[in-house]
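Hey L., structure's done. Input below.
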Amino acid sequence: MSRLNSCSPDTSLEKAATIMRNTGRSALLVITREGKAAGTISDKDLVDHVVADGVSARVPVEQVMNRHVETIPVDYRLSDIMEKLPLCDLERIIIVDEDERPVGLLRHADLYGLLGQEFAFLANSGCSAFSEKDRGEQAA
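Output:
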């Protein structure tokens, strides 16, 4: 899960790009004054709108942000996330607390990295699902 970096809907695209550069993030969560998720803005959105379409970098994020967001509760299990992720068609899912306030942003890369670590742990721990015979058959 990525640390929560955010901006408000009235933040300029230029300021959003600066925040992304300074934090090393490729996207920001756009949060309303009420603390709810309004959308996301990514480096790809900036390239598509500012560079390719000629939108002024001074316009507010809300004019070009991705408003389609999916959320999951902070207590979701990994298996629940794996079921929901393919249905979302999004690169990021917003993690929310019990009051629907954003607490994190989960990227596909975060999830796949976590799964890779879990599989490596299972394989190295002698889990029967990763027996020598099974590994040999997979390599063949």
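DSSP finds five helices and six strands in the chain. The domain at 6-124 is CATH 3.10.580.10 (CBS-domain).

-- N.
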